[in-house]
Write a structure and sequence with these properties.
Blueprint lengths: L1 H20 L3 H28 L6 H26 L5 H28 L5
Helix pairs in contact: 1-2, 1-4, 2-3
């Protein structure tokens, strides 16, 4: 489960570099596929590992809160970055790539901590 997330973490910066320097449709489709395939391979297993590591009575509420916080944090602050950023500034492109590494690094960290901590008692 960690391998697709690790590949995604490593592939984010080169994909954004390609998108910034080679603005073609083929690069956009290739970068999207390169980022989407590992995400599709590992998203279900990440969700299952989160729910299985929680006691039964907390599972649905914890997954709902996790989803709500993730969407509010990363989805809500993306528009602020988009409106405040200077499109001609080269640092803007890299800031968005680094911004994507945070939600990619979270499942890796959670997987490593869940494997070391073991399953909590119910």
């Amino acid at each position: 489960m960690i391998a697709p997330w690790a590949f995604l973490l490593v592939a984010v910066l080169p994909c954004f570099w390609l998108l910034a320097h080679m603005r073609t449709g083929a690069v956009l489709i290739g970068a999207s596929a390169m980022l989407q395939i590992p995400l599709s391979l590992s998203a279900a297993s990440a969700l299952v590992s989160i729910t299985e590591s929680l006691p039964r009575r907390w599972r649905s509420g914890a997954v709902a809160m996790l989803y709500a916080v993730a969407i509010a944090t990363f989805g809500g602050t993306t528009s602020v970055d988009h409106h405040l950023a200077d499109p001609d500034d080269p640092a803007t492109r890299w800031r968005r790539a680094w911004y994507m590494t945070a939600p990619v690094a979270c499942p890796i960290r959670m997987t490593l901590s869940a494997n070391s901590a073991g399953r909590p008692s119910e």
